[in-house]
Design brief:
Elements: H1 3-22, E1 25-29, E2 35-40, E3 46-52, E4 59-65, E5 71-78, E6 81-89, E7 95-102, E8 105-106, E9 108-113, E10 119-126, E11 129-137, E12 143-149, E13 155-161, E14 167-172, E15 175-178, E16 183-184, E17 190-196, E18 202-209, E19 219-224, E20 229-234, E21 240-252, E22 258-269
């Protein structure tokens, strides 16, 4: 009975010693004069490394590691809040994910990467919400989905592809915004500005039709889409407001299938 307390104390001391060893720390000053504090694994590899960029320790870079020594993730913090770019790696040291923060909230480019370096997805966030184009990819690089969001995170357009590149499903309206006032061009025509989707594996074109013209010459503007912020030159006979039809034609460059969408808008053409 008298041995029990001794054995118990030996057990407690062993656990405490082992715990201390597993959470041992290392402190030093790097070549830039910054304090570096490391929490170590039992094999003395860094588990967490913090590089303090100011004396108050409110601005620092925090990096976590796998036990093998490879970086797991790294980011900068101010007053405990993530700012700027944060990166994640797998156990082999390959980049997995990149994200950006503003005041601790996801804001900026988000990108995922397969182990071989192929982009798995890429998009942009505003105040934590998806905004603009997001594209997800199969491991071979082909698109899985194309998504377009407004700045509130609302999904406006969606297209899904199968592994061969065929359009599987499409929802939404490709015209995100059409400016209702045309700008005069030096050549005597007008430019109508708009924001339109530009899905991958597609040859996309916009045509503008004046429905008041009853013959084949009612196509008064046409342009191939190269970026989501685009413009189309339009020829009109007189200034003023005109109700026009905008046609979006999307052809799959692999299968030849075609999808068409239309939208009617009133555009003001000021005097030149």
């Amino acid at each position: 009975m008298k041995l029990l307390p001794t054995i118990l104390w030996i057990f407690i001391i062993a656990v405490f010693t082992n715990a201390c060893h597993n959470t041992s720390k290392n402190e030093f000053t790097n070549s830039d004069g910054n304090l570096v504090v490391e929490e170590l694994f039992s094999n003395d590899q860094p588990k967490i490394r913090t590089i303090y960029l100011n004396k108050e320790k409110t601005d620092y870079i925090l990096t976590t590691y796998y036990e093998s020594g490879e970086v797991m993730d790294s980011a900068r913090y101010k007053d405990g809040i993530a700012v700027g770019k944060r990166v994640y790696y797998d156990r082999e040291g390959d980049l997995l994910h990149v994200e950006h923060y503003k005041n601790g909230i996801l804001d900026g480019v988000n990108k995922g990467i397969y182990g071989d370096g192929t982009t798995s997805y890429e998009g942009f966030r505003v105040a934590g919400k998806k905004a603009g184009e997001w594209i997800f990819h199969y491991p071979d690089g082909g698109p899985i989905t194309y998504e377009f969001y407004d700045t509130t995170g609302k999904l406006l357009f969606f297209r899904k592809y199968d592994e061969t590149g065929r359009f599987e499903k499409t929802n939404g309206q490709p015209f995100i915004f059409i400016h209702d006032v045309a700008s005069p061009s030096p050549d005597g025509t007008y430019l109508v500005h708009f924001v339109v989707v530009d899905p991958p594996l597609s040859s996309n074109r916009v045509e503008v039709i004046d429905p008041s013209i009853r013959d084949s010459g009612n196509i008064i503007g046409s342009s191939r889409i190269k970026t989501v912020r685009s413009e189309v030159p339009v020829s009109v006979s007189e200034s003023g407001n005109k109700s026009l039809e905008f046609f979006f034609r999307s052809e799959n460059i692999k299968t030849g299938e075609v999808q068409q969408f239309s939208q009617t808008r009133t555009i003001n053409f000021p005097e030149i």
